[in-house]
Amino acid sequence: MPGIDVQGLKVRLAGRPILHGVDGHVPRAGVTAIIGPNGCGKSTLLRAMARLVRPEAGRITLDGRDLWDDLGPKTCARQIAFLPQNPVTPEGLRVRALIERGRTPYLGPFRPMTAIDRAAVDRAIELTGLSALEHRRVDRLSGGQRQRAWIALAIAQDTPALFLDEPTTFLDLPHQIDILRLVNRLNQENGQTIVMVLHDINQACRYADRIIAMREGRVLFSGPPSEVVTPEALNTLFGMRMRLVPDAVGGAPVIVPQ
Amino acid sequence: MTRTRLIYIVSGLLLVALIATLGAGGGSTALDWRAALAGEGVDYTILVHFRLPRIALAALSGAALGIAGSVLQVMLRNPLASPDIIGFGAGAAAGGVAAIVLSGSLALVAPGALLGGGLAAVAVLGLSWKSGLSPLALVLTGVALSLMLATVADILLSLSPGLQAAEAARFLTGGFSGADWAGVLGVAAVLAAGWACMGWLSFSVDRLDTGDEIARAHGLRPDRVRLTAAALSAVIVSVSVSVTGPLPFVSFLAGPLARGISGKAGTCLGLSALFGALICLGADSLSRFPVAGTHLPAGLFTAMIGGPAMLVLLVRQGGRG
Amino acid sequence: MALRHGATMLAGVGLLFLGSLLLGARPGVGLSDLAALIYPPDPQDAPGIVLREMRLPRSCAALLAGAALGAAGAVIQTLSRNPLADPGLLGVNAGAAFGIALTVWLSGPLPAGQLIVPALIGAGLASAVIWALGAAMRNPLTLILGGAALTAMLGAALRGVMLIDNGALDALRYWSVGSVDAVPPGSLGPAALLALVGAGLAMAAARRLDAMALGEDVAQALGTSLGLTRALALGATAVLSAAAVLVAGPLAFVGLVAPHVARMAGASGTGTLCVLSAAGGGALVLLADIAGRIILPGLVIEAGLGVTLIGGPVLIWLVRRHAAGDI
Q1: Contact B277, B63 (CB under 8 A)
Q2: Mean pLDDT over residues A189-203, rounded?
């Protein structure tokens, strides 16, 4: 089945079990949001799907190929781009130089940048609207601009799948929406498979066409938001009574605590 | 690019000037160039067997230390780390002293220093490894081990009879006065091999600055890169120390100078090597001037130049927060 | 809890002090000879002489230096919120030692009382460097590396002086390695006075440091002056280090290890931490000195070396336990 399949995934971090047998499916060319309360293992699931943590048991396949048995780190890096929640901003690095880092999977000690690489970087800069800032220092950008630069780095990686770990945290609301719209555009125009961890369940319902809800290292429910997000489901997820109000603009439900 | 080239040209000229004025001609005995170049006589012997190897050793070991230090700094994401602060230098020094004191001769200094540096590197890497190589843990473990190894060298010194203690003490204040062509060849070989390997590694090392998560998402293996680079820099430093004795702060200072002047980030291998060589040549030149009637070893001057430079760098870094 | 552990620690220090008086290369000193501490012994009474003239100053120096450094370590660790800070690792001790060595070299042997000023200047200058690192103190790595650089530089300078003046070699070597082998005559009194001043400063800083432990913003909201707190704390560190160096040379790691021992004994709050750290530091140096005297027959391993061989592994263990993030 095209897309990413997770079967019986168990992950331990520093000896502590984090995921206790996760099954799930991420369809190709869709936008999937992983939601759940703090510490439920959503970031770990995303990192495991990006081949960043080795599972204790279970398997993850990308278009039918096992992430660990069939793909090496470099091949995987050409399939999946991953943006962590808190990337380290190198001191003094310029925006363009940062975005060029996205080409790393295609380069090597004796394989310098080619015209193809430069074109990919140009396209990422254009898509994120960073043309005016490309010679600025990354550490002097505003939070919203910096997040755009990091996403541009992931775009330049030119992968079929893009994973984002809480891309909107620490941004104000307009910048959050700005980033989510950009991500949706990447999905629609480039057909990129998007998987992101989101904190805000309303944004997840609005911008994702599939939701994976997790609690205590297990998947509670998953599917299109209009089908699976119900007051009962939310009650079990957050342990809190919620009410669903139809959204006048986008059609997705809006969740209000009761 | 032109800026870098300019630095190379200026430094090259400076280098030639150093060699021409101080190195070959201006030691304690004035050299008769014509006689020396004629190929025989005392002046020729002085030139070929004393002055030239001394300069070559200073330049080569400086370059080697510069490369080893610069790679380590970039890899540990800290401009202040360097092999001599994280214990590699102290291990090699303690190994050299142990060889002198235990064998009673200078013959085993080189293998002793190599062994000491290697063991220290294994200890530092092993003790700081905890499901990965954290730069912080590596540096702190290195600082602790460094002090312990200095203590071991101290105990050995206090255990040994006068003559060996004097030899060991002289080894511990590094310098180039005992240079010979065999040592030069050894350092040259390790510099060539080390430079090639570091050149290969620098692609990955330069890409660790956005954090391990992104590096791994780009298909790199940060822990493996750090392990290899650390081991390589330990070998380079040990070989250099085994020939010259410890030269504090050279491996620390070269990288920040190279990056600061060229305005580039990353390992800057060529410029780091150049600045390492310049620092050592400068320190060697200073060591030819007697201070209060004594020729002080070059290692002392590298410390006196490098220490304040490091503090200035720290304060500047602190000011930026 | 802290009280009981504190009492146990004090009892331990007392026992170690007694052990330091009785144990050593020269056998035959027994409990009955302790009378020599009160009544001047007969010139023929060898054990009594050894006890009064050698063991007593040595044990007092070990206790004083250890206690001063332990308290200094507690202060600097609290101030920098860095559990790895130590006046020895940060170069404060090296500063004091270099100040003394330079003075001794330039003006010949001086009575210990006159060495207070250079020791204070050296320690003060080194503390000023740490002050200059101000913002960098947030980064534990930068602080430690800066201290290592300072120590290495001062060590090289000291070696340079030793190479220039061969005659001063022995006199200067004392100031490059921490030791209580040959306590400079007449230094105990001035050093004790200095340590008392340092303790006073530390106590004055303690309450303010407690406020600062809640975060600088909270401390300021509570009316604590950050500048004054830093000045008091660094001053206390410098004065205490100078006192320790005056009797025992630059001892590293004591200020690192002692506060951890104190915390394990349940110390909370800067004041208690200082007192228990002082006890722990005294115990550590006494222990290292006793071990150095009896471990290898016919050879004395200086307390400074012993302390490093104990403290180094402790530092490595701390680094491993804290892993990377939360140091």
Answers
A1: yes
A2: 92
User: Would the pLDDT of C136 be above 50?
Assistant: yes
Specify the pLDDT at position C183.
Answer: 82
Query: Within an 8 Å CB–CB cutoff, is residue A90 touching chain B?
Result: yes
Chain segment A148-181, per-residue pLDDT in tens: 999 999 999 999 999 999 999 888 899 999 999 9
Mutate to test the interface with B, among A94, A104, A164 (most CBs of B within 10 A): A104
Using CB atoms, which residue from B173, B307, B318 is nearest to C163? B173
Q: Map out the domains of chain A as residue ranges.
A: 4-79+160-257, 88-158
Q: Do B317 and C142 touch (CB under 8 A)?
A: yes
Chain B closest-CA separation from residue C21 CA (Å): 24
Under DSSP, is residue B45 helix (H, G, I), strand (E, B) or coil?
helix
C146 to B159: CB separation less than 8 angstroms, yes or no? no
Residue C170: what pLDDT? 66
Q: Percent of chain B at pLDDT above 70? A: 91
Partners of A76 on chain B (C-beta within 8 Å) are 219
How large is the ipTM? 0.89
- pLDDT of residue B26 exceeding 70, the answer is no
Give the architecture-level CATH label for domain C55-322.
Orthogonal Bundle (1.10)
Distance CA C127, CA C90 (A): 8
Residue C91: left if φ>0, alpha if ψ -120 to 50, beta else—which one? left
Residues in chain B with CB shorter than 8 Å from the CB of A82 are 213-214, 217
Architecture of domain A4-79+160-257: 3-Layer(aba) Sandwich (3.40)
Number of Cβ pairs closer than 8 Å across A and B?
Answer: 70
pLDDT tier, B27 (very low <50, low <70, confident <90, very high otherwise)? low
Identify whether the C-beta of residue B88 lies closer than 8 Å to the C-beta of residue B65.
no
Model pLDDT, residue A78: 94
What average pLDDT does this structure show over C67-72? 96
The distance from CA C224 to its chain's CA centroid, rounded to whole angstroms, is 28
- Asked if A151 and A167 count as a contact pair (C-beta separation under 8 A), the reply is yes
Q: How many structural domains comprise chain B?
A: 1
Query: In terms of residue numbers, what domain contains B142?
Result: 2-320
Contacts with C13 (C-beta within 8 Å, 6 or more apart), sequence order = C63, C279, C282, C283, C286
Q: Which residues pair with A237 in a beta bridge?
A: none
Helix (H) or strand (E) holding A154: helix A143-156
- Tell me, what CATH number does B161's domain have? 1.10.3470.10
Domain ranges across chain C: 55-322
Q: Is the pLDDT of residue A71 over 50?
A: yes
Band (B321; pLDDT cuts 50, 70, 90): very low
- Tokens at C242, concatenated: 């100078």
Inter-chain CB proximity B217 and A80 less than 8 Å:
yes
**Chain C residues 210-249 within an 8 A CB cutoff of chain B:** none
Partner residue facing A104 (CB), from B77, B213, B220: B220
Q: Which of B303, B308, B318 sits opposite C133 (nearest CB)?
A: B318
Residue range B172-200, pLDDT digits in tens: 888 888 888 999 999 999 999 999 999 99
